[in-house]
């Protein structure tokens, strides 16, 4: 029996952060040995909200940083295939064939599409952004992925993929597996400002590549309970970003419970809680920093990983597209025309 496949990835818009880690990278690290794993560098998806020449020029550098972050988190490059989406034009061909299997009203019901337009400062939704879930379906189905580890934001997208796969199989025969979602244990991590999810564009993120001093500075500036003006005022733990981070990244559960009890009773200051969080986060990030340093000490390693992975993936996608076109009857249509043209050519040559 063949090994089941997994696909996931990110847009190359900069270095990854703790929100990416809890949303999907932790799952990738845990799962990539169990699956034939594909990690997409989704630069075509990036174009839906960032498509200036400067944005595009930054793709190669951002791709290297992104792959370095993921490898530093513990993904084995020998057990995973990284590839650049735009270097595989067949993905666009598959997107064209799949886009006729879903309606505009269905895409308009995907909540994250409007959220992405809003976050990008767009009053109207571009055509490409509306079709984002269809291109994502092409990404998943082109390698025939069986599972897709996702954060909360992308769950609705993958459901569109499942619907498209079922509809294609119903119309043209069983070609695609219907992929299953693997949700992260921590679907969303609030940003350091406490106002929205962690995001590079909002400036409320702690990067996986931040040094210890940067982490401490960001933690000490974190939003907490706005009603707590002094350390002796009872504070709220629920919804407090500092305690949310402690819950995820501080393995000393007894310390976290003690802090929470004292905070509610007004017997501990924000500074002490934040200092402990900075220590916990840096302990969590130290092994990632060490692996990153080893990777960066090997010039060209990450570029080689991307190039080799892209070439392997393109071979698989080409094979999938041949199967798709054959199942739909598109290959036969052209062959019929070509045979008739060949007969006409022979007839003309014979009468000359």
UniProtKB/TrEMBL annotation:
EC numbers: 6.1.1.2
Cross-referenced InterPro entries: aa-tRNA-synth_I_CS, aa-tRNA-synth_Ic, Rossmann-like_a/b/a_fold, Trp-tRNA-ligase, Trp-tRNA-ligase_bac-type, Trp-tRNA_synthetase
Main location: cytoplasm
Catalysed reactions, as listed in the record: tRNA(Trp) + L-tryptophan + ATP = L-tryptophyl-tRNA(Trp) + AMP + diphosphate + H(+)
Sequence positions that bind ATP: 11-13, 19-20, 151-153, 189, 197-201
GO biological process: tryptophanyl-tRNA aminoacylation
Subcellular location: Cytoplasm
HAMAP family (alphabetical): Trp_tRNA_synth_B
Protein name, entry field: Tryptophan--tRNA ligase
Gene: trpS
